[in-house]
Design a protein that fits this description.
alpha/beta; 34% strand
């Protein structure tokens, strides 16, 4: 199973559309995870026409997305339980926010996918994988634009961050 992971697309504020490479990756993947800050619902609907897309609300998302997307969700891909959330507040306190938002549910997750910082991250902390794909459209807080790919086989998750340009 192949999963495209994106976040912080901020369309139409920082870009008019998703990069072509992201659309190509969506067509090659089984699912897409968007960790919030779509800004408008256009990106969600565009992706949903191509691929089964899971998304969560970001702190910058317009009211058109409120009520349509949850603030967090837990998704099972085979035996892998994944938490999807955007994030809030200072990057220094982001892990505390994420862990508190999932609460006891965190114990039953294999990994957490999040956004908010625009900085890609692939890190294991206390046996749990934390994965932030960065932003594929906005590198204001990051050295480059990026997205993520997860490949799940049974209970193994191969993951990588892909730099754009």
């Amino acid at each position: 199973m192949r999963i495209l992971v994106i976040s912080d697309t901020h369309i139409p504020v920082v870009a008019d559309k998703l990069p072509a490479i992201v659309i190509e990756e969506a067509k090659k993947s089984d699912f897409c995870l968007h960790a919030g800050d779509f800004i408008s619902d256009t990106v969600f609907y565009e992706l949903s026409r191509i691929i089964k897309t899971y998304g969560v609300l970001g702190n910058m998302d317009e009211s058109s997305l409120k009520g349509k997307l949850p603030e967090k969700q837990i998704i099972e891909f085979g035996s892998v339980r994944l938490g999807l959330i955007h994030g809030r507040g200072s990057p220094a306190m982001l892990m505390d926010y994420i862990n508190a938002a999932f609460g006891q549910e965190l114990n039953n997750l294999n990994m957490v996918v999040f956004g908010h910082t625009h900085n890609p991250l692939d890190k294991e902390i206390n046996g749990k994988i934390y994965f932030n794909p960065g932003s594929c459209t906005d590198k204001v807080f990051a050295p480059y634009s990026s997205y993520g790919i997860l490949e799940i086989e049974k209970n193994t998750v191969k993951r990588r961050i892909v730099k754009i340009g």
